Amino acid sequence: MTEEKTLPRAETRIGMWLFIASEVLLFGGLFLLYSLYRFRNPADFHAASMELSLFDGAFNTCVLITSSLTAALAVLSLRQDRPARARLFLLATIGLACVFLGVKAFEWAAKFEHGLYPGALVLKSLPKGESLYFALYFMMTGLHAFHVIVGICVLSLVSLWIKKGRTAPGRPMFLENAALYWHLVDIIWIFLFPLFYLIT
User: Fold this and answer.
1) Domains, the chain, ranges and CATH?
2) Backbone torsion region of residue 167, taken as left when φ is above 0, otherwise alpha when ψ lies between -120 and 50, otherwise beta
3) pLDDT digit string, tens, across residues 75-119
4) Which strand (E) or helix (H) includes residue 159?
């Protein structure tokens, strides 16, 4: 009987780790591509990075780190049989994710206003390295933002399941996997932040 109960949870966890491995490979390839272009155009990448707001990037980093903490506290609360508190921490995580997207939207809007987006005439007039930098910036931060949106949807669904009792202290795997995914989103940004904002 015990084996029948634990097997689905183990399979779910293995499936989640396989998904995370595929995501690591995806972003790993993009990081490798970034490294190659940066190695070939160090001065242009540095000049282009000056167009980004270090404050906005650092603020968003703090927001995501805090959201990882609230996600972990949600898991802990559910394990302590405090579902209402778990939902509260999940809502806090979702709120912080929305703040992150709001700041990122503000940043992107500023780049569009200044013509620093792929295909813009202003960007085409800049050195090739700077064009490559902004192409990578929009592609990688855009892909990350998509993952944030997916995370918001998943966390919202898990919050609903906790309310309905589908996710409970005895069945925490959905929340645990959602939190694991959210930690991945956080870690990816921790790599993106220095790559784009802290170029020297």
Assistant:
1) 2-197 (1.20.120.80)
2) beta
3) 999 999 999 999 999 999 999 999 999 999 999 999 999 888 888
4) helix 128-164
DSSP 102: H
CB-facing half-sphere around the CA of 82: CA atoms within 13 A: 11
The pair of three-digit structure tokens given for residue 179, joined into one six-digit string: 């939190």
| pLDDT 10s digits, 1-31 | 333 344 456 667 788 889 999 999 999 999 9
One-letter amino acid identity for 111? K
Task: Give the predicted TM-score (pTM) of the model.
Answer: 0.90
Amino acid code (one letter) for 36: L
For residue 199, count other CB atoms closer than 10 A to its CB.
Answer: 16
% of the chain residues with pLDDT over 90: 78
Q: State the chain's maximal CA–CA distance in angstroms.
A: 68
Question: CA angle, corner 87, sides to 22 and 171, nearest 5?
Answer: 65
Tell which residue, 156, 151, 152, has the closest CA to residue 184: 151
Please list, in sequence order, all residues whose beta carbon lies within 8 angstroms of the beta carbon of residue 198, skipping any fewer than 6 positions away. Answer: 49, 54
* End-to-end CA separation in angstroms for the chain: 59
